[in-house]
Amino acid sequence: MAEVEAVTSDLVDDVLDDLVEGLDHGLSLEPSDEPEGSIITKESWISPDALMRKALIVSLTAQIDEHQGDFIHSIGVAVSDEETSGLTEEQITASAETLIAIADECGADATELRGAHGDAGAMTAEYLVRKRQPADDFQEVRVAVVGNVDAGKSTLLGVLTHNVLDNGRGLSRQQLFRHKHEIESGRTSSVSLDILGFDAKGVNVNKPAHDGKLDWVQICHDACKVTTFIDLAGHERYLKTTVCGLTGTDPHFAMLMIGSNSGIVGMTKEHLGLALALRVPVYVVVTKIDMCPPNVLAATMSLLQKILKSPGCRKIPMLIQNMDDVLVAATKFISQRVCPIFQVSNVTGENLDLLRSFINLLKPQRTPSDHLPPIFHIDDTFSVPGVGTVVSGNLQQGVVTVNDPLLIGPDSLGNFVPTVVKGIHRRRMPTGAAHSGQTCSLALKKIKRNAIRKGMVLTALEPKPKATWEFEGEILVLHHPSTISASYQAMVHCGAVRQTASIIRMDKEFIRTGDKTNVVFRFIKNPEFLQVGTRIVFREGRTKAVGTITKLFE
Q1: C-alpha angle 325/327/332, rounded to 5°?
Q2: Nearest by Cα to 198 from 206, 186, 190, 189
Q3: Contact (CB, 8 A) for 285 and 156
Q4: DSSP strand pairing (417-426 vs 429-431)
Q5: Predicted model pTM
Q6: pLDDT tens track for 331-340
Q7: What is the DSSP string of 146-197?
Q8: Cβ-count burial of 148 within 10 angstroms (0-12 exposed, 13-18 middle, 19+ buried)?
Q9: Is the predicted pLDDT of residue 23 greater than 50, yes or no?
């Protein structure tokens, strides 16, 4: 415990000074846009004249576009090597007023994250600048919630999304369960979703009705940023469901839950290894600290630190204790090896505000690919009375609008058939278009539900998509009790695709735990639409292997 706190304190001292230097403040303008004679410095935000104000508007607009409408702006930080960082408290206040006014002109809100801090005359401050979104649009962040059974996953999500503390007996998780046996046993067996919305000022907009239900449409209407929690099963018997959730929903982040009283047991390491293998950034939440003896909590934290520092993880554990830590962790989370650790209680509410602030600041680090032809991976199918066939999933690239003609497939023969999109919903809210990286549901014309299976794709008419029976992948065996040879069969998870495949040939005659080699697979039942570079999970019982697709065969 002391060692984790030492790491935290060192990080806060060393990284905070470098934090703002790593952020792009957008303070240098393109020559064509910069008004003549206006060079932006840290003092430029203090009561600017008309010419400087115009330069600041151009600069802030460029930052908002570059950071996709959400970034942290620091006041009082040196722009060039010639000047030093820091302003007086009065100058910080004047600069903040200018920032708020100019952000408003740019269609955004500037909200204080950390007020003036530092030595007198050398103070800085951080503000969240977030663009206001239209009523039918919002930023989307997907977080997969993993951890061992009884770690408190569903309970924490119930507390976060419904704004009520737990009673210590699972009251808050009741709203999340989908099946009667889940309510009776208290254990999640399926992939369930819940959402947490934040407006442009970073305020939580979740307002449960009197019966405890959430109106998703109202949340998406009020929110500028919606975090979708994908609640996965913790029990070993539901590992297949958890793997499907991690691969098929394409999460931006993973939240690893650990019960402080039970420690790192069961499926905890399994889920951590899966998230790392799929290259999903992980942060850790340690729950039940209100009922855990101090010595047990210290032992859990010590083991957690040891695992995160191990060669398999290579992370820097950072215990989050205040808002300074949250800012450092949210900014350095993806670009560096920092792994934030939160200690929370769902009964007393301790440190839940820090966790909410961290979730509010999280932003996916993926480049939009709206200019590419659309590829939509189907994760589930429905038949809605009065509407017809509806498919849900993730739009990997491109833009889909209502009345777009698309191809759906492949079927059992590898063919793609034409269809038309007649409606689009995002988180139950109707919208006219879906963009790359977003999750949505599409209503389709002239297609029956029984002709669609999970793992199919919707693609553009051109270029013509091709189905694949055989593919080559570079595979690393994480665990196998004996040896794997040709003709071995196991379940392959690749995005929304999940199907049994057989090994045709390998570079080695046999492979064992820890071996890495190139393997050629062939699907048993249907051809699938695959792409080179996609991560795959190869699973059968306790056998697990991960890898990347390197080649597709015609």
Answers
A1: 95
A2: 206
A3: yes
A4: antiparallel
A5: 0.87
A6: 888 776 899 9
A7: EESTTSSHHHHHHHHHH-----SSSSTTTTT--SHHHHHH----S-EEEEEE
A8: buried
A9: no
